[in-house]
Write a structure and sequence with these properties.
This protein is of the alpha+beta class. Helix content is about 20%, strand content about 45%. It has helices spanning about 20-30, 130-155; strands at about 10-15, 40-50, 55-70, 75-85, 90-100, 100-115, 115-125. Strands 1-7-6-5-4-3-2 form a seven-stranded antiparallel beta sheet, with helices on one face. InterPro entries: Polyketide_cyclase/dehydratase, START-like_dom_sf. This is Polyketide cyclase / dehydrase and lipid transport.
Length: about 160
């Protein structure tokens, strides 16, 4: 099934964390940091590091999203992620491919501010019509949780 021709789901999230950009960048550039940084990610497997054609560091990995269904029933969704980073604090770009013809792109940019670091994340996602509302809701919830959890982690 091809991607829906509707406009992408798109939104931005911003937070300020109490840590310098290099600390925030190192944390976000490590795929294993996303365990718990997203409320759905319970595991990160098959991490492979390399470089793209432009020489930028790339991490390809599989993240396991755990959805609770009813009671003890759960569904583990294995998603493929490619994260391209541009050190020292350039954008971190994650391209996500999920089953069901769902794709997501997140671009994170860091800016130094007196309080630490401003973290701006732009998300665009595509999903077939039957999944759009679910994908949009989950993506927004995850982004808000991630901003709050990153703020908490960087304050520690």
């Amino acid at each position: 099934m091809p991607e829906d021709r509707k406009p992408p789901i798109a939104f931005e999230t911003t937070c300020t964390v109490a840590a310098p950009p290099d600390v925030v960048y190192a944390h976000l550039a490590d795929p294993r940091s996303y365990i718990g940084l997203s409320p759905l990610i319970v595991a990160v497997d098959d991490v492979r590091h390399g470089h793209d054609a432009e020489g930028r560091p790339v991490a390809d990995y599989v993240a396991v999203e755990r959805f609770r269904l009813v009671g003890p029933l759960r569904w583990d969704n294995r998603i493929r992620v490619r994260m391209v980073s541009t050190p020292p604090h350039g954008p971190l770009v994650s391209e996500v491919r999920s089953p069901g013809w769902v794709s997501l792109r997140a671009v994170v940019e860091l800016s130094p501010v007196p309080e630490g670091t401003r973290v701006d994340e732009r998300v665009t996602a595509h999903a077939p019509a039957p999944l759009r509302r679910f994908v949009a809701g989950q993506a927004r919830q995850v982004a808000a949780y991630r901003a709050a959890e990153l703020t908490r982690r960087m304050a520690a």
